[in-house]
Design a protein that fits this description.
With 110 residues, the protein is mainly α. 59% of the residues lie in helices and 5% in strands.
């Protein structure tokens, strides 16, 4: 299996596991009376499956997207992927220096 595909599958699985854990916590805590509603329904198993599947799919996509954005490539690393050290700063870009002001606002015309 290619390294990039293994990377994506690994992060998708992590996100899906997070979705399963989140649904489990929702059921244990009866968040927004979801457990009560699911237990009272005739097709509660379908609702639970759909909630788990779609939340898992959403979190898997988010996890893969974050992993891809934070994936950096260093020229000294012979083209192999390497995680960026600066994380969010690298994602947002380098800071832009602001011009110094003399403490007064420019005159506004209406």
């Amino acid at each position: 299996m290619p390294k990039l595909l293994r990377f994506l599958v690994h992060h998708a699985a992590l996100g899906f596991i997070l979705g399963i854990v989140a649904v489990g916590l929702m059921m244990v805590s009866d968040f927004a009376a979801l457990r009560t509603l699911i237990m009272a329904s005739d097709v509660g198993w379908l609702a639970l499956f759909m909630l788990t599947f779609f939340l898992g799919l959403t979190l898997a996509s988010v996890q893969m997207g974050i992993a891809i954005v934070l994936l950096g490539e260093s020229p000294g690393n012979h083209g192999r992927p390497q995680r960026s050290r600066s994380g969010l700063v690298a994602m947002l870009g380098k800071p832009v220096p602001a011009a110094a002001s003399r403490g007064h606002c420019p005159r506004q015309t209406l």
